[in-house]
Design brief:
The chain is of the alpha+beta class and 97 residues long. Helix content is 33%, strand content 27%. The protein has a single domain, classed as SH3 type barrels. The protein is built from two helices and five strands. It has a five-stranded antiparallel beta sheet with strand order 4-3-2-1-5, with no helix packed on it.
């Protein structure tokens, strides 16, 4: 997000952690602009923030990906590859100690 687009009170999201909050302070540190969020009271680089309204689209894409992963894993566990792999182990639990 461009620094000019952000304002106090604006709801934003930090996509790397999913943190969402309202901007309570804007500060410049070492040539970078940061915004403090009310939810964490931490500073986040403004260029890495997105408007909070976009978070719904990101979450739905993540959920769809998770559904695909679960489907693939269920297919794998029902398949021959896993059964063949299990034949090659002796079911012992060697703790090494």
């Amino acid at each position: 997000m461009a620094a000019e687009e952000i304002s106090l009170g604006m709801r934003v999201r930090y996509p790397r952690t999913g943190t969402t909050g309202s901007v309570v302070r804007i500060e410049q540190v070492s040539g970078n602009r940061f915004a403090e969020l009310d939810s964490t009271h931490l500073l986040y680089r403004i260029d890495l923030l997105i408007p909070a309204e976009e978070s719904h689209r990101v979450k739905s894409a993540v959920r769809e990906d998770a559904k695909d992963i679960i489907r693939r894993e269920r297919e794998y566990t029902a398949g021959i590859e896993l059964q063949e792999s299990l034949k090659n182990i002796d079911q012992s639990c060697e703790g090494g100690g």
